Amino acid sequence: MEIKKIIEFQNGDYIEGFFLIKSVEVKTSSNNKNYMDFTLIDNTGEINAKLWECTKEDEEKYLQYQLIKVRGNVIEWQGRLQLKIVKIRHATKEDNLNIEDYVLCAPQNPQYMFDEVVKYIEKIENQDIKKIVESIIYESKDKLLFYPAAKINHHAVRSGLLYHILTMLKSAERLSEVYTHLNTDLLFAGVILHDIAKVDEMEANKLGIVSDYSSEGQLLGHIIQGIKKIDRVATKIGADEEISMLLQHMVLSHHYEPEFGSPKRPMIPEAELLHYLDIIDARMFDMQKAIEGINSGDFSDKIWILHNRKVYNSNLKKG
Amino acid sequence: MEIKKIIEFQNGDYIEGFFLIKSVEVKTSSNNKNYMDFTLIDNTGEINAKLWECTKEDEEKYLQYQLIKVRGNVIEWQGRLQLKIVKIRHATKEDNLNIEDYVLCAPQNPQYMFDEVVKYIEKIENQDIKKIVESIIYESKDKLLFYPAAKINHHAVRSGLLYHILTMLKSAERLSEVYTHLNTDLLFAGVILHDIAKVDEMEANKLGIVSDYSSEGQLLGHIIQGIKKIDRVATKIGADEEISMLLQHMVLSHHYEPEFGSPKRPMIPEAELLHYLDIIDARMFDMQKAIEGINSGDFSDKIWILHNRKVYNSNLKKG
Amino acid sequence: MEIKKIIEFQNGDYIEGFFLIKSVEVKTSSNNKNYMDFTLIDNTGEINAKLWECTKEDEEKYLQYQLIKVRGNVIEWQGRLQLKIVKIRHATKEDNLNIEDYVLCAPQNPQYMFDEVVKYIEKIENQDIKKIVESIIYESKDKLLFYPAAKINHHAVRSGLLYHILTMLKSAERLSEVYTHLNTDLLFAGVILHDIAKVDEMEANKLGIVSDYSSEGQLLGHIIQGIKKIDRVATKIGADEEISMLLQHMVLSHHYEPEFGSPKRPMIPEAELLHYLDIIDARMFDMQKAIEGINSGDFSDKIWILHNRKVYNSNLKKG
Amino acid sequence: MEIKKIIEFQNGDYIEGFFLIKSVEVKTSSNNKNYMDFTLIDNTGEINAKLWECTKEDEEKYLQYQLIKVRGNVIEWQGRLQLKIVKIRHATKEDNLNIEDYVLCAPQNPQYMFDEVVKYIEKIENQDIKKIVESIIYESKDKLLFYPAAKINHHAVRSGLLYHILTMLKSAERLSEVYTHLNTDLLFAGVILHDIAKVDEMEANKLGIVSDYSSEGQLLGHIIQGIKKIDRVATKIGADEEISMLLQHMVLSHHYEPEFGSPKRPMIPEAELLHYLDIIDARMFDMQKAIEGINSGDFSDKIWILHNRKVYNSNLKKG
Amino acid sequence: MEIKKIIEFQNGDYIEGFFLIKSVEVKTSSNNKNYMDFTLIDNTGEINAKLWECTKEDEEKYLQYQLIKVRGNVIEWQGRLQLKIVKIRHATKEDNLNIEDYVLCAPQNPQYMFDEVVKYIEKIENQDIKKIVESIIYESKDKLLFYPAAKINHHAVRSGLLYHILTMLKSAERLSEVYTHLNTDLLFAGVILHDIAKVDEMEANKLGIVSDYSSEGQLLGHIIQGIKKIDRVATKIGADEEISMLLQHMVLSHHYEPEFGSPKRPMIPEAELLHYLDIIDARMFDMQKAIEGINSGDFSDKIWILHNRKVYNSNLKKG
Amino acid sequence: MEIKKIIEFQNGDYIEGFFLIKSVEVKTSSNNKNYMDFTLIDNTGEINAKLWECTKEDEEKYLQYQLIKVRGNVIEWQGRLQLKIVKIRHATKEDNLNIEDYVLCAPQNPQYMFDEVVKYIEKIENQDIKKIVESIIYESKDKLLFYPAAKINHHAVRSGLLYHILTMLKSAERLSEVYTHLNTDLLFAGVILHDIAKVDEMEANKLGIVSDYSSEGQLLGHIIQGIKKIDRVATKIGADEEISMLLQHMVLSHHYEPEFGSPKRPMIPEAELLHYLDIIDARMFDMQKAIEGINSGDFSDKIWILHNRKVYNSNLKKG
Questions:
Q1: Chain centre distance of CA A26
Q2: What is the pLDDT of residues D208-218, one digit of tens each?
Q3: How far is it, in rounded angstroms, from Cα E123 to Cα E130?
Q4: How far apart are CA D135 and CA D115, in angstroms?
Q5: CA-CA distance, B200 to B226, in Å (whole number)?
Q6: Residue E91 has pLDDT above 70, yes or no
Q7: What angle do CA B254, B258, B261 make, to 5 degrees?
């Protein structure tokens, strides 16, 4: 029997494959028996799956975010494919799986991206700025390798935060060729630090899926947490006070509007640009994702994170 | 010749007195000669004063915020009293003046108020909270004795910040008798710390008059500065992390609305009440000030800091 | 068999008890037979209950807001307890029940609270104010004893309106010790009258549950209705015009913001304080209620009436 | 010497005429002497006038809103005409003046407009509505004959309130031919009553110029005052309660938006239409006034009461 | 057997009738068989209907917006009438049906309304304006005869756009008798053109039901589309530039507020009035519709398109 | 005598130089004689200048925006330098002046910038897009060479519009290397066309100073005017309809928010990015300008076009 990816399923198939349990619920059918209602995903899509007449052990054994191996029949139910599970077990080390095949991941390798970010840090000339950035990024490295940039919004993919930082660094470098009066030390540092405290604000598992916000995350938020991080490191290394203050200002003002969490608006051009690099990267990501899901000449549904806009996929060539 | 207070001046008087220069400008009269145009104040009022045909030395000698001794004629000019200066000199130590007689001050003695605040700190049972508050308040004591609470708004009087804190503590204590589930340790600490970083945000002279905002004050603001203060002290004394976080949350949320500087709204009842104690104290101060300036049965002008409201001074008895 | 409160139910119990029908619906099961689907409450909680294979008479007999006596089996259904009703009858006088045991009530006895409010009225020195307040409060007494303060928001409990008034009076008295220039006659009267016309705006049953808003309540609202009440009584007793006007102004402005129903903002300090006493009492009530439902160290869900905030239940001791 | 209107003045004229003192101020010239600086108006325009070297008696004799007779020289001063007063005296009964010649008035005779409004009242079939309207309008008749509709905004002309009502009645009648389901009794009554309490809210002199707002006007506003008026009359005549309530609702909701003073939005079509008739009449008046002041093809300045819009006077024919 | 309208159905009837399929879904019953779940409408109401045990052919044959003939039993299901379909077929030409009997239509005949609109065009004196309006209206005539004015809001009935235009023209004519300075050519043209591009913005079927918005409708909107229409025609006929510009301005500004799609607010009185005529017509339509559905003395539910207001149906006579 | 630039003036100098009259007013001195009050500028700064005892001919001869040659004394008046004009005449061809020396200009040569823009057009592959852009840019070339981008806001310098376009093109090219899915044809075209109709909206003289807005500019605005431009050209050359629609959408949506003139928000990523390129270029320009005017470590005044923010000039090196 062939191992299949979800995208390859067809009505009538009898398939075998590995999937991640995105969610699972125990329900009761009209004949009063329990069954398990799964949403299974791999990196090609998602499908509803039923394990009829499950046992109490099944209910306790197969839980959210686990990798499982499954055999079953693909049927069509009210116009949608569904998987009727025949066999189920946990994936094991021997199955030799790569997480990238089962969850949405940033398009580049985490360690590679981390190394690229470090190259930008190498370009920072001001030693105080460089030390602050280095200290913080290495302290956060473990989490940075898999953390998403958000719970449900833009870059909510494994290693999404790192990908977001790296893309912004590329844009920052290019635009500082056009706006030559900018201090690139500040700008690069701002890009790297602006969301770095998200690793403290959110609790994410190794799949890059956020389960919750931390208490401090909810009571203070990553902007305040980031400022404190800079304050502590800058104090420790005895950095110039203005430099510490400017980096904190960049983090503080990067959401731009008070109602989005920035009590101060940018007062230096590097902070101003940081905000727009951030928002451009989020929007390009979200719009591109929306476009990938629709045909040329069509509109997407209204997308909440784009302020309820629809996105149009034109017939012109892309890129 | 009699020493007179501004409130006692009458048209035709020839007076002598001590005054503070609130502002001074060198102007040119229609006959092309320079004269000095003063606004003089004491704690009973303010008056316009002219030094006609002043010398270059005069222009360089008599500056804003200085105490001067003056003789002159009180005249009426277009319906208002004005002082024509005949003699002028700086006040000296020998004149033996009290600053309270020349600038608007809080109605109680600064050291007395400080001691009263300390009594509230004594009531704090939780030792971590107590230590944090003590450490910060003694560190700020020098400035606290004369700082106003604002540049132009509520409690913009000498020692106004201390007075604001003390009055709020009284209200906090009383309302915690009604709302008995509140943690008074948190509440008292929140009251004392909520605006404490205003001593870093603003630059005020010993007269309690704010000349400017500091760079950090403008780029970060007293809310963020206050959080960093708590973070540093709590780290130093090894305070419980939740306690530090809750105190920071109280400072962070006390302006309540994002557009007024609080990226997070209160999530504990003590923070919620802190906000309202703050606003009640500001409003009672501003409304009472407005009422003092008008007759019973009259309305004040529109008052900007009361969102452009007029205040009505009823004919009913007060208090 | 033991009489049990809902909070004591355990899976497998066969129980007997008295409950209030919070809501009831006739539904049809998958085998095409009607059954009754109840939500039953007492003052310890609420539970879903089913009366399977009910008769037409049952459907017409057991209605919302009735007190019933029930026997049945407690079972677990998809993780929640459910009551399978075996026997059901109406409660009778002979059962000797107290309404306090079946609906959420204010924490103090209505008549006691009313008497306490009357004591505050006794403190009012101005005779016109006193007469107006007395006339209105006695006219509303019957309803005041059981009316809630709202349909679903703060103080939506039996006698909640009276409790709200009494608590605010306590706070008003205490804060007028701090802000000594306030006219306590006006302040106490404002507290008592500010929401008094809610007894005309809403239609509530003796359980303190609001079924609907009256026509006048919807077309004019309790603020306007309250003003008319004062206008009529003041005219009848020939009260001083300024006093009537000030009381009306306090009622008119107590929601503070036009978008919350106050076309005029407070222009006297007593009206200003009235607004904040009102909002503090609502918030302390709602936050406390939220905290009671969660463990220390946890956050509540987002609470709509707190503008979608979560509330945090700290690990510090309360009160 | 010829009696001239302001619009006829030319540089170099020596004129005689009657004018109203719109405002007057005593100023001091560069040679330190007092002079009186007048703004004089008649119904053709306004002009600045100077009485040089005035006496103390002059200063006390010629006051705002008085009618005066004046002789003087018309000169040009920095591009504008100015009147240098040579002779001045008060107008007397013998001068036989009509107020319409000296202040901006509604384009129709007040008594005629009042009679026209009465004709609309005659058309009201419901006797309760008719009695309420009649009672209130006759009670307000004296003031209605000369009151403007506002202090500075739309219809701020003598008898402007009456003109506003009459024009709206005409529109109301016509639109009820198109929207035939409307109750014209309610609609006509709503039009007549919607602003009627402006005669209590504002204090205006017989010239139709508002000097101030009354205390009750400021603390409650004409909407609340109007509701109380209806409430009192309806109670007195024992009107149907629904009718009284609907008329009050119409007055309450006619500003439509809470932030403009209506805590309730219209819930009946007659109230909805009332709002739009009101706003259309204000806008047509203000736009027409703006257009009259500019040439074809030009834009007006930004007009505050039109939300800072400019108005364009097209080259097309009007009417 | 009698042909019956939906409004005449009673529990237990065996009926025959013609209906329009408003929507249809294939569902699966608890015994795992497909059935068709219809919403059927005629111009008297709507009813749920089931075709149990349908065939694959049925599923493909009976589709949304088709007219069908049906026999079946009227039963009561959970308090509502439901139709159990016994026989079903498509309506045919021979059935001789009128669309007006099956969908909500404007209350007047489309061709009649079009002719009435043309009469207003005849009244336009300015030849450029007349030609532009004529050219555009005849170009849109086909669609105009059946297009609604909106997808779900006001005038979402067959020929609703034409009805909206005609009613506004009547009001425009009447109000220009009151406001005699208006240019009726501009006003009539503005009324006719303001929404004319809705026929390009939306895609509606002959039933007057909007299925979707066009791509250009979504990317530009009917306001911009209408301006381009005028621009093209005006250029073609060589119309006066100011006239073209004014007509475009009227279309551009008729939504009044930027957030509703008008980047410029009205700057001529005709545009100002156009906006209010538009909004009055929408509101009278929506409120009347709401009132028709409720008893005297009752309130409607909250109505979204009326900004969530309830509407009150008074006991007074209508019209 | 030496020809001096304004920046070189010192108190006591007797200078000669060429200047542009930025504004001029005839005033009357206290001795009742006319004098001319100039603001003179060159590209180094601006100075107030007086021509005392001017003749009628002078008043009519020296007008705004003229280039003049002047001799005079530099004096200090109330702390500021002022020029007392001794000799004045118009500049002549023989003086051989360059406009760049007298008004603020974009930092690059207009023709050079135009040629650079054309190079970007050469990169557009889609022939329809290319033709539309070419047609419009050549049609506007004359004005484009000197038009500013705004009356008082960002890029309000000679040739500012062209400079704004060119800078954005550079950024667009660079960011499309990072966001590789973008269609650069659309993006470049959008950048070039987004503000192109400002040459129709505003009336500017050859100095690049806007005197006023055109009638069409005020009634429709440059966004609508730009759409019509594209519509006309696209129709003429028979361009693909989707392409025309997308270009119009980009122009329509580039202000992003309805309240800033865009009734539709961007629905394609190229339009989204266009908006941010636009705003980044404006902000970098305005912030850099603000920074140039202040010392390191200082804050600017509040800058209206930066939403009343102050800008901080850090001590770090720039660029």
A1: 28
A2: 888 889 999 99
A3: 9
A4: 15
A5: 9
A6: yes
A7: 60
| E292 part of contact set with chain D, CB < 8 Å | no
- What does the pLDDT read at residue F32? 67
**What share of residues in chain C are helix, strand, coil (percent, to 5)?**
45, 20, 35
Chain C residue closest in CA terms to B308: C265
* Rg from Cα positions in chain E: 23
User: How far is it, in rounded angstroms, from Cα E221 to Cα E213?
Assistant: 9
Per domain, the residue ranges of chain F are: 6-102, 110-288
Cα(F241)–Cα(F132) distance, rounded to whole angstroms? 12
What span, in angstroms and rounded, lies between the C-alpha atoms of E231 and E247? 9
Does position C209 have pLDDT exceeding 90, yes or no?
no
Do F253 and F267 contact (CB within 8 A), yes or no? yes
Say if CB A293 and CB A310 are below 8 A apart: no
Q: Tell me the CB-side half-sphere exposure of residue A40, using CA atoms within 13 A.
A: 29
What pLDDT digit, counting tens, does each position of D234-274 carry? 999 999 999 999 999 999 999 999 999 999 999 999 999 99
Per-residue b or e along D280-300, where b marks 16 or more CB atoms closer than 10 Å to that residue's CB: bbbbbbbbbbbbeeeeeeebb
The 3-state DSSP class for residue C27 equals strand
Q: At what angle do helices B184-193 and B241-253 cross, to 10 degrees?
A: 50
Question: At E182, which amino acid appears?
Answer: L
Looking at CA atoms only, how far is residue B305 from chain F in angstroms? 19
pLDDT for position E155:
79
Token match 């052919």: residue?
E57
Query: Is the Cβ of C65 closer than 8 Å to some Cβ of chain A?
Result: no
CATH match for A6-102 among 2.40.50.140, 3.30.1330.60, 2.60.40.1930, 3.60.40.10: 2.40.50.140
In DSSP notation, A145-192 reads TT--S-SSSTT-SBTHHHHHHHHHHHHHHHHHHHSTTS-HHHHHHHHH
- d(C-alpha A256, C-alpha A44), whole Å: 36
User: Exposure pattern of C21-57 as b/e (b: 16+ CB <10 Å)?
Assistant: bbebebeeeeeeebbbebbbbbbeeebebbbeebeee
Amino acid at D53: E
Instruction: Give the tokens for residue C261.
Output: 């129903």
CA distances from F192 to F134, F169, F170, F187, F236 (A): 10, 8, 12, 9, 20
Instruction: Identify whether the C-beta of residue B206 lies closer than 8 Å to the C-beta of residue B65.
Output: no
Q: Is B317 on the interface with C (CB under 8 A)?
A: yes
Comparing CB atoms, the residue among C174, C246, C312 nearest residue B177 is C174
Complex-level ipTM: 0.88
Global pTM reads 0.90
Residues shown for chain B: 319
Say which of B28, B30, B218 has its CB closest to residue F299: B218
Give chain B's residues under pLDDT 70.
1, 29-32, 78
* Cα B121 to Cα B114: distance, rounded to the nearest angstrom: 11
The tokens of F1 are what? 């005598």
Chain B positions touching C246 (Cβ under 8 A) are 314, 316
Q: Which residues in chain A are contacts of C31 at CB distance < 8 A?
A: none
Rounded distance, CA B176 to CA C46, Å? 32
Is the pLDDT assigned to residue E68 strictly greater than 90? yes
Q: If you count them, how many residues does chain E have?
A: 319
Distance CA E247, CA F222 (A): 17
**CA pair distance A273, A263, nearest whole angstrom:** 17
Q: Quote the CA–CA distance of B121 and B165 in Å, as a whole number.
A: 12
Query: SS3 of A30, please?
Result: coil
Element (H, E) at D34: strand D34-42
